[in-house]
Amino acid sequence: MDTVKFTQMKDGDREDYAFLTEHETEYAAGTADRLLTAMVELDKSLSGYKVTRLGHSLQAATRAWNAGADVDWVVSALLHDIGDIYAPYNHDEYAAAILRPFVREQCAWVVEKHGDFQLVYYGEHVGANPHKRHAFKGAAYFDDCAEFCEKWDQSSFDPDYSTRPLDFFAPLVREVFARKTYDPAVVRSGQREALSNAALARTRSAT
Ligand SMILES: [Fe+2]
Ligand SMILES: [Fe+2]
């Protein structure tokens, strides 16, 4: 069997769908590597800053790593702007949709809202509402998103920052996207992890 027998989905049988499921599982296993390739594509997007989009993403992930943040945070920081490629007007939601099955709910929420939170830094200059984040006042992860933007996002446009390469983060991306999807032990709904861990930061800076 090279392809299914049907030309309309409603005519497919159990054998067809078992065949497709096998292919889908195989294809899904390559997600991490496709994302890593897409990150390289980011290098060509959105010029005008002092760093490329890939440079910005790597810098955000490096800051997360250096802060001692856990793998969910580091990978979320790395991929937070991946939506720029195909969804420039809702890049935050796009990135969150990619991450959501594989990371803590806290991280997916922060990535989804980071675009609105970032406006506090430049909204007034572009005719947008700088206080758009106020709509989320009282949300469980409000402070985390504010911290994410302040420490890792708005700050990561410095061409002189010592940024780690994509190869350094590749194993972390593969680890996260090899997880069982929507695993409650990963999603940990409502639970927060700090964006920094001083002990881990010290260990990492020593290597
Ligand atoms: Fe962004
Ligand atoms: Fe960003």
Automatic annotation (TrEMBL):
Superkingdom of source: Bacteria
Pfam families named in the record: HD
Start and end residues of each HD domain: 53-117
Name by which UniProt lists this protein: HD domain-containing protein
Species this chain originates from: Mesorhizobium waimense
